[in-house]
Amino acid sequence: MDWKKINHIAFDADDTLWSLEAQFWEIERRFLALLAPYGSADALAEKLVAVERGNHPVYGYGVKSFTLSMIETALACSGGRIPAEDVGRILDFGKTLLNAPVIPFADAEPLLAFLCRRCRLIVATKGDLLDQERKLKNSGLLGYFHHIEIMSEKKTADYRKLLKHLDASAQEFLMVGNSMSSDILPVLELGGSAIHIPAPVPLRYPDAPADIVSPRLLTLGSLAELFRLVSQKL
């Protein structure tokens, strides 16, 4: 990783700058309890994941897609017999996620305050546009970023488009995120650099293996470790 060339640093948002996955796990737990009359927790959870994955190309990612997938799963597993009031509870689960407070990780703001004086900072995330914009605003971190990119997918072509918009080369670009498949591998494929910081809570979906070896990839345990590193390198 050539730190002398890096002048654009992008951050994933959810579970990189603040915690989100734990909230999804809690809502899933409550959803499975609600649907307990219609099947085992394991079978219901497997069905929910299958429905979510099938819906991603249609609804995209985020809370609204998750909520619609919970309703579809409930209808399928109950044979259409789930009471209207329980559908209302599922809608409330979604609203709970949408209205949850956004609390950045402890070292996020000091890190961004340090970096924004030395390079351009970017948010590169995916999900529902309105929800991601709301979280960024409520996080108090929005002012540190030069550019916000909310993608429907985070694949190699999407990062290539982002680099073109930024007028930056891959060698000038560093991506920081918690997902190997969304944040790390596409950037490495383009010739950029990446720092993988695994989320403190396991992802609900299987991720790509984290055993990739590259001179342009580092794995760290926290934003605090990243702060110590960039304090030495930049």
UniProtKB/TrEMBL annotation:
<dbReference type="Pfam" id="PF00702">
    <property type="entry name" value="Hydrolase"/>
</dbReference>
<dbReference type="InterPro" id="IPR023214">
    <property type="entry name" value="HAD_sf"/>
</dbReference>
<dbReference type="InterPro" id="IPR051540">
    <property type="entry name" value="S-2-haloacid_dehalogenase"/>
</dbReference>
<dbReference type="InterPro" id="IPR036412">
    <property type="entry name" value="HAD-like_sf"/>
</dbReference>
<protein>
    <submittedName>
        <fullName>HAD family hydrolase</fullName>
    </submittedName>
</protein>
<dbReference type="GO" id="GO:0016787">
    <property type="term" value="F:hydrolase activity"/>
</dbReference>
<dbReference type="InterPro" id="IPR023198">
    <property type="entry name" value="PGP-like_dom2"/>
</dbReference>
<keyword id="KW-0378">Hydrolase</keyword>
